């Protein structure tokens, strides 16, 4: 590919030389036109086949978020308490390492979590994410690994790949594959757009939306079904997770926020999110038991703020 790139570059140089040799401009206006034409040719140059990575210098970002509840992929992991979510990311030449945590100020049982210490403050989750990103013009591709160290459920691991387009809606399609505690695949298509606020430099109104599809692939994902018991049975279960594996359009999300610059490198972002089920199977319950073994997806309104500092 490098040889092909060099060949293309050589051809472009020869074409440029032929254009220049075809006639030397005699007036300043013609020189300006030639300069503009040269700039246009440079902007239209082919995208390097080998792609590009991130900046050569190490960058770091620290984030502190405060929310009224913890909702992820439509599942609710906290209720009637505030959650504090610190995070830090280090990046270098496309490689990134992210460490994220969740502190629940008053743990309670939800349809998707069973706390070890109910009604107490708990630092109940630490996620470690490693990734690599490479870009080709407006398109970028990221591959990575996530380890979920949770106290309210089984710990697990995922591999993921994400493709993104740097256009007005910034669409990102991510595929997560759990290969440990909950084998299955989760697909998420997300969109975002920031609108500058003319009155304040670097202030933006931020909009976002996303849809998710869940496809369970192990026996863990068998759905809940009811059974018929003989009239004279004395020890007969009336239901259990023995049905088909859960697979459905899962969760939707709408978000609005406001990014406010504080000082150089630091912003604060108040935001609100509305999450909701995308199908009847996503929020289905059978005899008041969740059809999905990981819990049903309900309608939830999440609000809070995020403080971000770029080093």
Radius of gyration: 26 Å
Which spans have pLDDT < 50 for at least 5 consecutive residues?
1-35, 40-44
Got a strand count? Answer: 18
Tell me the major beta sheet: 12 strands, antiparallel, barrel
Q: Give the averaged pLDDT, no decimals.
A: 87
Strand order of the largest sheet: 1-4-5-6-7-8-9-10-11-14-15-18
Shape descriptor reads globular
* Distinct helical segment count: 2
Task: Report the order of strands and helices.
Answer: HHEEEEEEEEEEEEEEEEEE
Strand fraction equals over 45%
Summarize the helices and strands and which ones pair or pack.
Layout: H1 2-21, H2 28-43, E1 59-67, E2 71-72, E3 75-76, E4 83-92, E5 95-104, E6 122-136, E7 139-150, E8 156-165, E9 172-178, E10 184-196, E11 204-216, E12 222-226, E13 239-245, E14 247-263, E15 266-277, E16 285-286, E17 289-290, E18 300-310
Antiparallel strand pairs: 1-4, 1-18, 2-3, 4-5, 5-6, 6-7, 7-8, 8-9, 9-10, 10-11, 11-14, 12-13, 14-15, 15-18, 16-17
Any overview of this molecule?
With 311 residues, the chain is mainly β. The chain is built from 2 helices and 18 strands. Strands 1-4-5-6-7-8-9-10-11-14-15-18 form a 12-stranded antiparallel barrel. A two-stranded antiparallel ribbon has the order 2-3. A two-stranded antiparallel sheet has the order 12-13. The longest helix has 20 residues, at 2-21. It is globular. The model is unreliable at 1-35 and 40-44 (pLDDT under 50).
